[in-house]
Amino acid sequence: MSRIQKVLEITGLTKRFGGFFAVNQVNFAVQKGEILGLIGPNGSGKTTTFNLIAGTLAPTAGSIRFEGREIAGLPAHRVCRLGLARTEMERAAKMLEAIRQRLGVTIVWVEHIMGVLMRVVDRVIVLDYGEKIFEGRPEAAAQDERVTEVYLGRSHR
């Protein structure tokens, strides 16, 4: 039986700016070879989440483990040397899929426009107001009431 390998594991990730929680207790893992979409409307916390992972920002709390190593709080240049980097072009979707097929790389794609991303990713995490509101298959996200409310602009709060 094959064992699923976690490449990236996020636990209790939190970023506070003063009294505002941009990211609040977010948890998820990314498996080897997976393309994970991190989506949400503007202001949902997705870019802050990825900036925390990439080392552009230091977390207020939580753990970021890459290939079993704690990287929370490392500067961006050190995180990049470990193999984590930022890059989110629409035309790159086909290229990313081809690269994954040939090389077996793992990709976390941060985006607020769902169209192309939803056709490429294996799994999607949706953030809203810094909190994870959905995790699952893209087609399930498109049918989820809370996700559609967030994207259609109707507040669920």
Description:
This protein has 157 residues and is of the alpha/beta class. It has a single domain (6-152), classed as P-loop containing nucleotide triphosphate hydrolases (Rossmann fold), CATH 3.40.50. The protein has six helices and eight strands. It has helices spanning 46-54, 76-82, 92-103, 114-120, 138-143, 145-152, and strands at residues 6-17, 20-31, 35-39, 61-66, 69-70, 107-111, 123-128, 131-136. The strands form two sheets. It has a four-stranded antiparallel β-sheet, with helices on one face. A four-stranded mixed β-sheet has the order 6-3-7-8, with helices on both faces. Strand 4 and strand 5 (69-70) form a beta hairpin. The longest helix is centred in the middle third of the chain and has 12 residues, at 92-103. The chain is globular and about 40 Å long. 29% of the residues are buried.
Describe the structure concisely for a colleague.
This protein is α/β, with parallel strands linked by helices and 157 residues long.
Give the arrangement of secondary structure elements.
Layout: E1 6-17, E2 20-31, E3 35-39, H1 46-54, E4 61-66, E5 69-70, H2 76-82, H3 92-103, E6 107-111, H4 114-120, E7 123-128, E8 131-136, H5 138-143, H6 145-152
Parallel strand pairs: 3-6, 3-7
Antiparallel strand pairs: 1-2, 1-4, 4-5, 7-8
Please supply descriptive tags for the structure shown above.
157 residues, alpha/beta, Rossmann fold, four-stranded antiparallel β-sheet, four-stranded mixed β-sheet
Number of domains: 1
User: What is the CATH C-level name?
Assistant: Alpha Beta
- Tally of strands: 8
Mean pLDDT: 87
The CATH architecture name reads: 3-Layer(aba) Sandwich
Measured as a percent range, the helix fraction is: 25-40%
Order of helices and strands: EEEHEEHHEHEEHH
CATH homology superfamily: P-loop containing nucleotide triphosphate hydrolases
Kindly identify the CATH topology.
Rossmann fold
Tell me the number of helical segments per DSSP (H or I, 4 or more residues long). Answer: 6
Strand order of the largest sheet: 2-1-4-5
Q: What distance separates the N and C termini?
A: 44 Å
Low-confidence stretches: none
Structural class: alpha/beta
Shape: globular
Largest sheet data: 4 strands, antiparallel
CA radius of gyration: 15 Å
| Range of strand content | 25-35%
